[in-house]
Amino acid sequence: MAKTKEHINLVFIGHVDHGKSTTVGRLLYDTGNIDEQEMRKLKEKAQQLGKAGFEFAFVMDNLKEEQERGVTIDLSHKRFDSDKYYFTIIDAPGHKDFIKNMITGASQADCAVLVVSGNPGDGVQAQTIEHLKLSKIFGVGQLVVAVNKMDMAKYEEARFNQVVEEVKKHATQAGWKADKVRFIPIASFPGENIAKKTTNMSWWKGDCLLEAINKFDVPAKPTNLPLRLPLQDVYNITGIGVVPVGRVETGIMKVGDKVMIVPGREGKGVPGEVKTIEMHHEQVTQAEPGDNIGFNVRGIGKKDIARGDVLGHADHVPTVASEFTAQIVILNHPTVVTVGYTPVFHIHTAQVACQLTKIIKKMNPASGEEVTTDKEILRNGDAAVVQLKPMQPIVIEKNSEIPQMSKFAVRDSGVTVAAGMCIDIVKKTLE
């Protein structure tokens, strides 16, 4: 077998109607990752459903069905090969899916393509801004902004520049270094500047989308950290048995490893031994950070474990917290946050209500300096160090030890209220 290509997890983000799915579909089609016949079927399906023009957007949906038959890897993941890398593309169709996919860490992407519509009247929207903030907080390292629908802006350079300036302003406020963010003009539906150079924008001398994603740097893999694999789902497959699926965050998992999944249903942890590992429908002997895998563990029943549990090696069991201290930023709360507030925390793949038991210190998010006035109340834009008590056992790690397992988002009534990371933990003892 030839040397395997380096792997990058790539998420497509952006406001709901700005063309993410169409961009992904067009990219896969134009690079030969989907064949003519499949595309024809999708075109017919789109017309039947009265959605002519949506065939590229259907690419990911169609694959969902195909993958449901294989039930292995998370359904919104699609392998995509360029000549240089192999990408797992995470298409976040709607806003809520984006939150679930990206934040819960089920698919913490290494790199992102933010799709913003260049159609006059669109441009930067509330979701565009939220995605810029969230991707930054959650450690997406590299960003390309694709200004889409340039066909609707008559392929005018002035409109492209206008959107670029608008996005730059918000990206800077979200903590991105504007000179590190790359911008490209595209028109996904007609296929302009996706896999080959544009013909309608002679003013554009830069990369097409394919060239732009090929210029991402491969992130260093945290293979030297302890093994942590948050479970995303647990399947029962005839003839094989219990197959948990998830993405390795840190460390290396090998066939034959003695492992422990915590907290598990009883809260004591569930021990087992790894029998098989499968990735993209192929058996492998080991899995590394970033790999989305299905695996089979000897000695574990379907009812013992669930989404949100975390697998680690038996000699370095993941940390279950009875309380933890975190640094948080309030992003979007309708009123104020005070002690006693108990929203839902999305930590890797787990969702657990946690109560705010103490505001230790309030800080100016820009400078990090302590704010001494009005410190019992947190409002939008405030940062703070707080003490939290999970309402049920939860696995979380200190940012200084395993940063990949320390980040979380706080959701309340369908919005992301806050985001943060764990800085200290009171360990729960497993009986």
Word description of this protein:
With 431 residues, this protein is of the alpha+beta class. The radius of gyration is 22 Å and the shape is globular. The chain folds into 3 domains: 6-214, P-loop containing nucleotide triphosphate hydrolases (Rossmann fold); 229-313, Translation factors (Elongation Factor Tu (Ef-tu), domain 3), CATH 2.40.30; 320-427, Elongation Factor Tu (Ef-tu), domain 3, CATH 2.40.30.10. Helices cover 19% and strands 34% of the residues. Helix 5 (126-137) links the parallel strand 4 and strand 5 (142-148). It contains 7 helices and 23 strands. The strands form 4 sheets. It has a 6-stranded mixed beta sheet, sandwiched between helices. It has a 6-stranded antiparallel β-barrel with strand order 7-8-14-11-10-15. A 6-stranded antiparallel barrel has the order 16-20-18-17-22-23. The protein starts with 5 loop residues before the first strand and ends with a strand.
Structural class: alpha+beta
Instruction: Count up the helices.
Output: 7
The share of residues in helices is: 10-25%
Largest sheet: 6 strands, mixed
Task: Give a count of the beta strands, DSSP E runs of length 2 or more.
Answer: 23
- Taking all Cα atoms into account, the compactness measure Rg is 22 Å
Features:
Elongation Factor Tu (Ef-tu), domain 3; six-stranded antiparallel β-barrel; six-stranded mixed sheet; 431 residues
